[in-house]
Amino acid sequence: MSTPAIEAPARPQKPRPAASAYAGLLAAAVGLILFFLWSSTSTLQLDIGVARLPLYPILGALGVFAVLALCWRARTGPLTALGALAVIGVTWWGGSGIGFTLAPLWEDFDRGWPIIQEFLDPSWGFIWRVWDQWVVTLAMAVVATGIGCSVGLLLAMLASPVSSPSKPVSQAVKAINSVIRSIPDIGYGLLFVAMLGGTAAGAGEMAGILALIMFNIGIIAKLTGETIDSVDKGPLEAADATGSTLLQRDRIAVLPQILPGYSSYSLYVFELNIRASVVLGIVGAGGIGSTISVQLSHFNYSNISAIMIALVIVVLIVDYVSLTIRRRIT
Amino acid sequence: MSDSSSKTPQNPPTPGGESQPTTGQYKPDMLDARPVKPSKLGYNIALLVLGIVFIAAISATGADWGRLVQLPGNMVNYFTLMGQGVAQPLTAEVQQHWLSAFDNMLESVQIAWIGTVVGALFSLPMGFLAARNMTPLPLYVVVRFILSVIRAVPEIVFAIAIMLPIFGLGPLAGALALGISSIGTLSKLISEAIEGVDQGPLESARASGATQVQMIRWAVLPQIMPEVIAIWLYRFEVNIRASAILGVLGAGGIGSLLSALFGVRAWDRIGITLVVIVVVTIIIDQISAWIRHRVIHGAPKKEARAARERDDSDGVGVPPAGAHPI
Q1: Residues B320, B224: contact at Cβ < 8 Å?
Q2: What ipTM goes with this model?
Q3: φ, ψ for residue A158 (rounded to 5)?
Q4: How much is the average pLDDT of A316-327?
Q5: Interface membership of B259 toward A (CB under 8 Å)
Q6: Its Gene Ontology molecular function terms (chain A) (predicted)?
């Protein structure tokens, strides 16, 4: 871009970030490249005539320097540039850890193509044959949402300093919430199936509901807790001024404020439950997932494909319905 | 009630004023009656329907509620076993168990990270294509539809249907399945951030003759970048949990270990693994929450002013006024 020559006060230029900070970043980059060289397990090499260099560390080094140069040109602060370097480092670590490659896409595509073809030819009749499992799945989702969201609301109320009886209670419940939230839904599924018995023992639905409840409590307690933290303080003060007890204050000043958000989260959790029940069924909790699991063990891919199409349709419908309800609530 | 309201002067002359007795007896008319409580009929009906649906659902699950009776006993039993597993002295074998749980958890984190990176790479351009203020209508409709289909499909479907046949059982298939399914949510959230940008910078960029690309670079990206980074990090947290799900299918990571352990009912090792999951997940959540907060709200208070002045003309570091934590 050419700027016309104007004598009047020169355009203010953003100063370049401190060169010393970037020198430090350069040192960090060199350290990162050494880490690449050290951790690289690939034997692929780049022949440049005079020497043979390991391919992936060289690519990584080019990436590092490119990012540094870009940050310098865009006048990014040193901290942000350090963040960018960290992202590259973690990506290298993850990528080499799981052996990232896209080669199977063209090398092994023929092996997977017959299976994908079976998926592209779903057996439509199968969709209606498993409708009772769909009913069970939806019912499980409803029950788990109802119970999980109620307990979650209670825990969120106890966890937020705004509505909690005391600080120790709030801290303790917060810790419990993060423990509940950190175990994935599949972990709960395995746990309850092991404790109660799975579909084979006739307890799959119960185990699935319990797993979904724990899963819901974690999400609702987190989301609602954040909403409670940010409620308008005015009604709280008014309730305090009229001498209300904690329960009255929570009922009159907090609950009405969080109700729209809370209902919307509950609907969101309901959608999540339908998706999660697929996974839970595979580990032995009931619902449509157990059907998928059976078909998967028979390598009956066209039936699985039919179920998955039905799943997408059910999720889209639930998505649409809950979107409509959410629009009316909020 | 009526004696207190009789003292208040009536400012507007009421239409029914002539009927008001002047002999001290006050009779409230339409205008100074208390406001009528709005009807709660709709609300109550909704609650009633919800209750009926809930009860119907309880019976429709066909779950054996009697089994709940034996649950507490079983729980105490198994949790004791797990607790003993966690608390047992660190012999070489037990150390091996802790290390293998930790290694598997790190592999899950790697799967989740690569999945998030793959999703993030695609989500930024897709987000622009799905934002109404950046894209012509036909393209917008098509992209939105594709995104909502991707969002409706659970990641496990991508894993079973597309990734496992081609990439085989392994962490790579899991990472790519997570990556594809991340695109849906990420692009939607990013497109919403783009639609919510402040119009001012866009207008001034357009007024100075910027091309579409220049407008994106100078008017849109600086506004949305903090929010976008927060969205990506949030998805990383979600993906850590999701990678456990794919592990059960055999994609490696903590999910594979867990399902293998549950297969042989090794409760002591299950306890160890669950502790590792909880600790690592909480640590990563905390770090991610801290970065998200830092990115959205900028530097801590005392530095905030200096930082704002420093970043003034660049804009990359300035959080948008309406930015909210996710």
Answers
A1: yes
A2: 0.83
A3: -70, -30
A4: 83
A5: yes
A6: ABC-type phosphonate transporter activity
